[in-house]
Design goal:
Pfam family, one: His_Phos_1
Number of domains: 1
Radius of gyration: 17 Å
Largest sheet: 6 strands, mixed
Structural class: alpha/beta
Organism: Paraburkholderia bryophila
Order of helices and strands: EHHEHEHHHEHEE
Protein name: Broad specificity phosphatase PhoE
């Protein structure tokens, strides 16, 4: 049994465009600009009709999934990184108020000066989710079947999945750029997980 997994980052939010960390409130919705981005991108995303869909608990991810026509199961493992006391804060303000802490966080995957989650912890969370997904799909599929899965989540989660699948050092995370509505494709076979160019 093989798995073809499409990980999609949610549409842009007002906080992202203002250079803010996301607010801690998972009910913060998309604004009209984010919804318009999804409508423009929908025809470009090749999401299989038979895909099993999962989504982060955040409203921006759930609204992205809904606008893409997906009925998705909420999965807490797909939640955004926990930014601790930096939730809702402007990056520009932190550069002035806490430059050493911010520098450490952007360079050291084990640093979590905000009291939240480090990137290394996020990688571990996503590794656990990928293995749990493999177990779940193994029980739900026939031996020679390819199971299509799509997950709507957050840019840091996509970065963590790439790092995990490639077996790369978590320290490479600042070199991976993920734009809103980006797609990465991962496949699971007897070789384990591999990263494929996403087809659009």
């Amino acid at each position: 049994m093989d798995i073809r997994l499409l990980l999609i980052s949610h549409a842009s939010t007002a906080a992202m465009r203002a250079g803010r960390f996301p607010v801690a409130d998972p009910l913060a919705p998309l604004d009209p600009r984010g919804l318009a981005e999804i409508r423009a991108a929908r025809s470009l995303l090749s999401i299989p009709d038979d895909a099993t869909a999962f989504v982060s608990p955040a409203a921006c991810a759930r609204e992205t999934a809904s606008a893409l026509g997906l009925t998705a199961t909420v999965d807490a493992h797909l939640a955004d990184m926990n930014y601790g006391n930096w939730h809702g804060r402007r990056l520009a303000d932190l550069m002035t108020e806490a430059p050493h802490e911010l520098a450490a966080w952007t360079r050291d995957p084990d640093a979590a000066p905000h009291g939240g989650e480090s990137f290394s912890q996020l990688v571990k969370r996503i590794e656990e989710w990928l293995e749990a997904l493999n177990e779940r799909m193994s029980h739900a599929s026939q031996a020679n079947q390819t199971h299509n899965v799509v997950a709507i989540t957050h840019a840091p989660v996509l970065r963590a999945a790439i790092v995990s699948v490639l077996g790369a050092a978590p320290a490479v995370f600042p070199r991976i750029e993920i734009a809103p509505l980006s797609v990465i494709e991962l496949r699971r076979s007897r070789r384990g997980w591999t990263w494929w160019p996403a087809s659009r």
